[in-house]
Q: What sequence folds into this?
């Protein structure tokens, strides 16, 4: 067999979402980020629209993202609703990461396929990055927090009216080697049809 299925199974099943408070602060090498991005580019894509786009905040660049989201939160929030703890979290949390990759769906200009297919393709690209990070011993997690759903963020990410920000992949060196998660049995989510 060309690939070691046991290794592939382990990689898929041991991939974890690893959050910024579990990062060491050591810088993830740029080559790892580049490999993640290159593998993202090999996601499946209907009609080859390749809708994934990434804005990469790396090393000191994470401060630019942190400041942006904290400032935008202040701008778009009334004095009465403003929460200083939330503001500080928006400012501090990104700075625990080595890299934050903004996950963007760039809509095909002629809209040849439904939007959901473009979002699905970007999600496949994100999973490629998750698995590449896992294989390299690097932690990451997909966040849909901060400005993900704030319309005012569109210009900062160069989004056209039909494009969508799908969140952020936080990346950092993990404090420990193994993390646990849970799933219900796969058999409960599958219906087989074997009779003609
Ligand atoms: C589309 C998407 C959005 C997510 N957004 C968040 C988020 O905003 N905050 C968060 O803590 N985790 C988020 N997660 C990560 C999940 O919390 C994580 O996958 C879940 O806890 C299972 O952990 P595991 O990936 O280690 O198995 C998101 C995951 C996906 C697929």
A:
């Amino acid at each position: 067999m060309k690939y070691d299925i046991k290794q592939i199974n382990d990689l898929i099943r041991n991939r974890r979402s690893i959050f910024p408070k579990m990062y060491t602060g050591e810088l993830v090498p740029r080559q790892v980020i580049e490999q993640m991005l290159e593998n993202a580019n090999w996601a499946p894509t209907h009609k080859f629209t390749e809708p994934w786009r990434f804005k990469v905040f790396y090393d000191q660049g994470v401060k630019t993202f942190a400041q942006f989201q904290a400032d935008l939160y202040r701008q778009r929030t009334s004095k009465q609703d403003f929460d200083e703890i939330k503001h500080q979290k928006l400012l501090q949390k990104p700075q625990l990461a080595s890299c934050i990759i903004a996950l963007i769906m760039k809509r095909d200009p002629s809209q040849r396929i439904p939007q959901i297919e473009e979002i699905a393709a970007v999600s496949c690209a994100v999973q490629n990055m998750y698995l590449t990070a896992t294989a390299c011993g690097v932690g990451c997690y997909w966040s849909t927090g901060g400005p993900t759903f704030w319309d005012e963020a569109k210009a900062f990410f160069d989004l056209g009216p039909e494009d969508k920000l799908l969140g952020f992949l936080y990346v950092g060196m993990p404090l420990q080697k193994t993390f646990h998660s849970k799933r219900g049995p796969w058999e409960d989510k599958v219906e087989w049809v074997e009779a003609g």
